[in-house]
Amino acid sequence: MNSKKKIVTLAGVSLVATAGVVASTNEVKADTTSDNAQAAATSQTADQQAQAKVDQAQSNVNSASQATSAAQSQLDSANATNSAAQADVNSQQAIVNDAQAKVDAATSSVSTAQDAETKAQQNADQATSANIQKAQDAIANQEAQISKDTDAINDANKAVSDAQSTVDAAQKKVNDATTVRDNQQKNVDAANDAVKNAQAILDNSDQAKKQAQDALNQANQKVADDTTAVNNKQTDVNNAAEAKKNADEALKNANDAQNSAQKNKDAKQVIADETSTALTNATAAVKDAQAKADAINDKLASFNTITLPAGYKEAITGLIKGEDSSNALTMLGQNGLRNNQYKSNKNDQKITVDYNNLTEAQRQELSIFATGLINQIQSQMGTTKTSVSPKSVEFANKVVKEAYNDPSWDGFGPHMIDGKSHNSDGLQKVSKEMNGNSVLENMSSSIHNYTYDDSGNIVSGEIAPQTMDSLKHALYDDIVSMMFDDADSGWGHALTFINFGEKDWSIQSIDNETMGVAFDKYGYSHFDFTGATSTNGFGDNKFTVPSNDELISELSSANTVLQSTKTDQASKQKANDDAQNALSSANQVLVAAQNDVKDKTATTQKANDNLTTAQNDLATLQSQLSADQANQKQAKTIFDSFDADLVTKQANLQKATDSLKAEQGRLAIAQADLDNANKALSDANNNLAQKKQVVENDKEALKADNDKLVQLQNNLSDLQNAPKLLSAAKEQVATAQKALADAQEAYNVANDKLTSLKQHAAGTATNVSKAQQALAEAKNNEDAAKEALNQAQQALTELQQKEALAKQVAEEQAKLVAEKEAKDNGYHIENNQVVDAKGNSVNGWTVKGNQIVSPTNATVDPVVSATTNVSVDSKGQVQPQTNATTNNGIKTMGVAESANPVSTATVQTREQYKQQLKSNNQLPQTGNNDSAVLSLAGVALAAMLSLFGIKKREY
């Protein structure tokens, strides 16, 4: 084949789409195939790079999405934590508010108690015999005054009673005068009628005579009626008198019963007062006894104890006998650690100390405290108790100074595991110098502050300020730890504290053991033991070691006294209850009697009122009868007067007129008497009101004097009980102050916790803000990653579309080349093989059905004896012409008649093609076969490009 060959390529997608096919001529050598392979490799590399960018972008999106999700989770968690923290703050704030309210209330209680104490102290200062006698005299004088007040009230009540009687009498006079006046008015009216009748008689009128007869008849009837009414009313008066007599008798009996009930009540009152006083004294005795028992209980409650768990004694005794009881001791020790807790002392908490420079008194107190705890252990174990003396305390102090502080002997080391342990030589040296008999030491890191650094290593920290309470607490915990958590030391520390004795366990025992306690400059505690002899002074002037045995004994005695006082109180309580019940019964009887007197008094008063009313009514009826009888007589006289002569009638008229004047005069007198009676009644009522006011004033005075008596009696009681009252007031102050201290401490604890919670909440709020910021950043990163992924995917898609288009173009080119080769060489099928025009087999070509396949896999039709020419008419349209060669010569047919024609093409350069179009101003004409074929291919490719939807690139 030629060393050079022409290859048709597309210049660009956008150009193809707008101008059909533009063919360019590239001259290549025979190794074009390898160049194509290199191009394919380059394209494959571009695909892989684009895909790698997509994959990386997708990975970035996934990572960013995960980061966003994680940031959201962190924000949710931060919000939840912050909400919980704020809820804790709110809850704790409520607790602090309540604690503050309790502090305020306790402060008020302290102020009140202190005021009461001040008054009690003033009362105690005034509680002299003279003042007590003066108070008693004042009470006697006040009781005398109350007696006078009572007499005055009785006198005033009598005056009221007398005044009431005067009022009643005056009222009766008013009533009588009113009756007289009213009756006299009737007499005047009758006299006036008599005058009228006398005049009528004088006139001798028949009508008048008839009226006189009627008047006489009415008068007769009225007298008859009045007589009946008087007789009936007299019966009522008699009955009322009998009722009054009975009521008076009943009232007398009721008063007698009331007097008897009053005497019985007074007697019961005396007994009740006596039993009440006795009960008060018994209750005070119980209170005093209870206070003593409570005080001892308080001491016991604050007394630090160490109790060995059940089985501990047997297990550790078995240990020294060779038994394998270490595990059992460890299990028992857990109970010991759990059940033995230090009890703080508030007074000790107030005493600050320098642990490295303790005073002698402080060292002695700490040594006595520790020895007391060890003695409790020894008492439960049944071993000899260790003692403490001035010299044993000095021994411990000297050991710490000379064996540890001066040589800077760090027993545990700055990291807890790099210390020098006990300074045995130093111990022996001090013991020898002080003539000690053997020496043992237990040592603990105690108040030394071990902590962790940032790398998790144990390091020494600064030791906190100490008080006597904190040092005792440390010693207590040291002993408890060495007693119950000592397996890693073979329980040697526990055995040292127990001190079985040199006979039973000489390794960790000293006979006649004494002990002292001291703290070295590192904050380690040292329990130093040595034996006392008759000559070395360690046993001299031993300190008394406090024991709860004495307190228990005191408590037993106090409880005995308390029980005795309670029994006495119960007896006094029963006696008082009986007396009070009897008094209550007597009061009930008295009240019933008093109510009966009230009822009988009311009944008697009602009987009196009924009798008075009946008598008044009888008097009225009798008066009415008298008046009506007079009227009857007058009516008879008037009627008889009609038969008299003229002189007599005239005389009767004159007499009636004179009588009228006389009756009118008596009416004026009756009215004057009534006016005087009303004035007397008004004066009597005013006097009664004044007397009643005197009674009220006297009652007010009596109440005031009774109140003053109560004050005087209370004052006397206060003076007589001044010591108890002062003691109770002081106790109340102490109780109130303790309550205030407890409330303040509770408030401080609650407020400290609130401060801590607020700080924590502030931190959680900051975390929320940071989490929100981190979430925002994560979302931004995720959005950016998604945008990058979108761009990478778009770039990959564009590249894949370009490559697909290029592949199609390459396949079309390959097919054109294969068709040209087959046409030029006359490839056709013979015996199912591809042969050339000469019948030679063509290497690399194969048969596929009725078609042949080139080595480049391009499928074409085999060659037939026909040639197709393409020409371009004057309108620029392509007009293919087919010349079919037959045995009869050349025949021309249309394209439709063509049998799979294969065009031949002569390749032109771009410049040649443009020049041709320019010169011809038309598409290639017939005979320009290569250009025509390429033009058809370009049109087809342009159509294909439009189907794929590839956008054109702007230049």
Give a topology summary.
Layout: E1 4-10, H1 13-19, E2 23-29, H2 32-126, H3 129-203, H4 206-301, H5 312-320, H6 326-339, H7 346-349, E3 352-353, H8 360-381, H9 390-405, H10 424-433, E4 437-444, E5 449-452, E6 458-461, E7 466-467, H11 468-484, H12 492-498, E8 513-519, E9 525-531, H13 548-641, H14 646-720, H15 722-825, E10 828-830, E11 833-835, E12 846-848, E13 851-853, E14 859-860, E15 866-872, E16 878-886, E17 889-893, H16 910-920, H17 929-948
Antiparallel strand pairs: 1-2, 3-7, 4-9, 5-6, 8-9, 10-11, 12-13, 13-14, 15-16, 16-17
Helix pairs in contact: 1-17, 2-15, 3-13, 3-14, 4-13, 5-6, 6-11, 8-9, 8-11, 9-10, 11-12, 15-17
Describe this structure in words.
This protein is mostly helical and 955 residues long. Helix content is 71%, strand content 9%. It contains 17 helices and 17 strands. The protein has helices at residues 13-19, 32-126, 129-203, 206-301, 312-320, 326-339, 346-349, 360-381, 390-405, 424-433, 468-484, 492-498, 548-641, 646-720, 722-825, 910-920, 929-948, and strands at 4-10, 23-29, 352-353, 437-444, 449-452, 458-461, 466-467, 513-519, 525-531, 828-830, 833-835, 846-848, 851-853, 859-860, 866-872, 878-886, 889-893. The strands form seven sheets. The chain has a three-stranded antiparallel sheet with strand order 4-9-8, sandwiched between helices. Strands 12-13-14 form a three-stranded antiparallel sheet, covered by helices on one side. A three-stranded antiparallel sheet has the order 15-16-17. A hairpin with a 5-residue loop joins strand 8 (513-519) and strand 9. Helix 2 runs antiparallel to helix 15 (722-825).
